[in-house]
What we know:
The chain is of the alpha+beta class.
Amino acid sequence: xxxxxxxxxxxxxxxxxxxxxxxxxxxxxxxxxxxxxxxxxxxxxxxxxxxxxxxxxxxxxxxxxxxxxxxxxxxxxxxxxxxxxxxxxxxxxxxxxxxxxxxxxxxxxxxxxxxxxxxxxxxxxxxxxxxxxxxxxxx
Length: 139
């Protein structure tokens, strides 16, 4: 048997149960919002870390791809990355406290939607592709 000494304040059961009730109430609110997004073709994952960061991952279906440019325009510090399966947009929202990542399969969106997405984050992927093809940039 190991006994570990600690200088942490003792937990009050009432404080713990109150905290759990608050978290569960918020979780049900988030759940209902996630269900609403799912109905329009957006898969959502929310991760709250102990370091005070909230990461929201959204996977956009073809049905919701038209929403992408408008969503991206609302992001601060956004950046677009071409992934093997499509595009990923990362940015912050809400005074930088929430990181939002949007992912969409390039086969699920039209050329016009992809162009609008690129314009929304002010990134020229042609430059990235040209840089990838240039062996001198791999150093």
